[in-house]
Automatic annotation (TrEMBL):
<dbReference type="InterPro" id="IPR049142">
    <property type="entry name" value="MS_channel_1st"/>
</dbReference>
<dbReference type="GO" id="GO:0005886">
    <property type="term" value="C:plasma membrane"/>
</dbReference>
<keyword id="KW-0812">Transmembrane</keyword>
<dbReference type="Pfam" id="PF00924">
    <property type="entry name" value="MS_channel_2nd"/>
</dbReference>
<dbReference type="Pfam" id="PF21088">
    <property type="entry name" value="MS_channel_1st"/>
</dbReference>
<dbReference type="InterPro" id="IPR049278">
    <property type="entry name" value="MS_channel_C"/>
</dbReference>
<feature type="transmembrane region" description="Helical">
    <location>
        <begin position="426"/>
        <end position="444"/>
    </location>
</feature>
<dbReference type="InterPro" id="IPR023408">
    <property type="entry name" value="MscS_beta-dom_sf"/>
</dbReference>
<keyword id="KW-1003">Cell membrane</keyword>
<feature type="transmembrane region" description="Helical">
    <location>
        <begin position="543"/>
        <end position="575"/>
    </location>
</feature>
<dbReference type="InterPro" id="IPR052702">
    <property type="entry name" value="MscS-like_channel"/>
</dbReference>
<dbReference type="InterPro" id="IPR006685">
    <property type="entry name" value="MscS_channel_2nd"/>
</dbReference>
<keyword id="KW-1133">Transmembrane helix</keyword>
<feature type="transmembrane region" description="Helical">
    <location>
        <begin position="628"/>
        <end position="651"/>
    </location>
</feature>
<dbReference type="Pfam" id="PF21082">
    <property type="entry name" value="MS_channel_3rd"/>
</dbReference>
<dbReference type="GO" id="GO:0008381">
    <property type="term" value="F:mechanosensitive monoatomic ion channel activity"/>
</dbReference>
<feature type="transmembrane region" description="Helical">
    <location>
        <begin position="387"/>
        <end position="405"/>
    </location>
</feature>
Amino acid sequence: MTRNYFSFFKPFFTILFVFGFVFGFSQNKEPIITKDSTKTNVPTKIHVVDVIDQLELTTNDIKEINKKIAPDPSISKIDSLFPSYQKQLNIKLRNSEYFISANPNRQKINNLLNKWYISRDYLKDSENTINDVILKNSKVLIDVSFKEKVWQLTYENAIEKDVPREITDRLNKVTNDLHDIKLLIVKRNNDYLLLESKINIQLTSVNNQIQRLQGMKSSQVYDLLYLRHPPIWKTSFKKSNTKNTITEGDTIPGDFKSTVEFFKTFENKIYLFFIIAVCIFLFFRYLKNGFELHDIKNENLDISKDIISKKYVITSLFACFLIAKLYFINAPILFDNILVIGTLITSLPIAYNSLNKKFQNIVYVIILFNILEMLKTYVWFETYQYRFYLLFEAFIVIASLYYFTHPYFQTRKLNLSKFSVFIIKLTPIIYFLAIVSIVSNILGYTNLTDITLKICTQGSVLSIMFYAILLASKAILIAMMHRHYARKPVYSFQKREAIEKKLIKVIHFVVLILWVLFFLNIIDQLNPLTNLIDGALSESYTFGTITLTIASLLSFLSIIIISFLITSFISFIFDDGQGGLKFLNLPKGVPAAISLVIRYIIIAFGIVFALSSLGIDLGKFNLMAGALGLGIGFGLQNVISNFVAGLILVFERPILPGDTVEVNNLMGIVKKIGVRSSKVSTFDGADVIVPNTNLISNDLINWTLSDNIKRVEILIGTSYDSDPNQILELLTECANSYINVIKEPIPVALFSDFGDSSLNFKLRFWVHFEIGLQAKSDVSIAIYNKFKELGIEIPFPQQDVHIKDLPERKKDIDLQ
């Protein structure tokens, strides 16, 4: 109960500790020219005595300010490229009008939307860059204006007090310099605002075009059961006149040009991704070295070894392509397709061995499906051509299903992996969708045809890619667990297995959720779903003076959960000397202290960010913090003293987890050092919770702080007939002959004293603490056996009792 009580208050104590630490170091010495935050920001003149020092400081400040307000190269680049980019947008707008008039299918609209998304991202990035510079200059402007007024007052004061001309000239120069800087900042900010306004006008136009295209997708023309074309036997085989007009930007050369422009526009993102790719390769190399350094025979490691060690390059490339697909959002279609093909090709070797031999060749069919889908992007089909192309694609799907699953019922009886069983169970559904696509295509319901074929083809592509993601994620997890535990001399295999199973379940759940989201995106249902959910989450609810939304509550919970998950991960990796900080060769206990500090900081800032996500003004907690401090002073003295004692134990390190300690007649092994109490496991099997103040204030014996060796002393006596010199030699021999006795310091046999009935000796030797009792027992038995063999007597106290006749007893005898 006590533990749960303190766990509730632990985050608040942590916040107070971290904030006190941060605020303590934030009290730096400031120059005289400051803005008083407790009063109105009224500039005041500088005292004549301080003028010279402040002149020097302000002169240096002017140099720094000139550096801060220097023209930003990124804005200069935006300004120079904007006129040509504006012309390109106007051309895209005209082409888009022609494109819309051609009544394109949903996929063509998605392709055009992707191009507009790229333009929107570029304009947003440009606008944000300019806005950031304006905000930075505005902050500098406030500071410069304040300093200008201060020096103006100082200059006027110097004139009144008849300060030497040389000083007044310097004061005038500083004032003029600050005034010139202020005018320069105002001019540049106006120029930046003008450029931002032009960009915003274009951004508004782009957003309108995006909304228009999204609205088209929601129109009745694109409903699934809308009769988009006449039946196939009534289809006209005449060529369209609009083909050449609207396909100029949809060819591979056109997309290649767009890709080159994309690379030029987002050049910094490309460089950053190369750094990410290098880190990915180094990470997989690190995992591979873990198998080479710690080779353990274990069936659970076979798949991980195969993926991480044997397929190290392929797995690294797969991770790079996958991250690139997520990193370059709204990339040009050609570049995006290259990333998809790269991800698919590199995923096939990862998933190949996990598939049943009957289904291993399905990976090549999946590549074919992806190519057939990509051709729709770069080839502008006439209506009749497109419909025959869809029929061909549907027959390919049916033929592939028949080839891999015939005979179906016998195939289901094979010893298959879970993924193969999942594919087999979906076979009737895919047959049904393929037949629906053929029938709907013949009748003219081509919207239904498109969506059913997408589910069949792109669904299979997505499934094989996410199956590879699942295998790779599990392999990475097992490799990390293997490397973490393999370097430990002793660990609990059951604990490791339990952690692995729990994390694998989490991976399965996360991969399934991601697969569902990507699948919804393929069939164009993700945006409607997210809009629906966003509308529900943004609904506000008022509780007194606080207004909350479900989204803010979920954000609060997510930040808290993520913070605690991160702290758990850090504790798992860094807490012991064999963890992630092993390469630093830190003293014992230091990794745990570093881990504790990092975890407290993460928890503190996590709670602050979580409260901020609720829209709560943290300034309102000042009163509560004062009340909490008062409550701590009166009601929680013991809790806080134990908390401080816990910090002392962590940083001073008088005891560490794994040490054998003795305190208050309690002896055991330290299992955990908490912030309020520590857990000591006794040798009788009991776990004792010891308040930290007891460990700090009481006499504490740590048997294993500096080392884990212990001196054992055996007391023994022999009869006065024995030779003391021989006894000393025999005792030393018995100690040296014991295999676990440490040779340095050497065993020592000593003559103690002349006892009442024996000659007393002491035998002292050193052993590892863990076997102290066993060593004492074994050496004692060896001494007994040796003495018995040589006939050396081990005496025991003897006493002769003489009974004298008492006078009364003698008188009784005489009377008889």
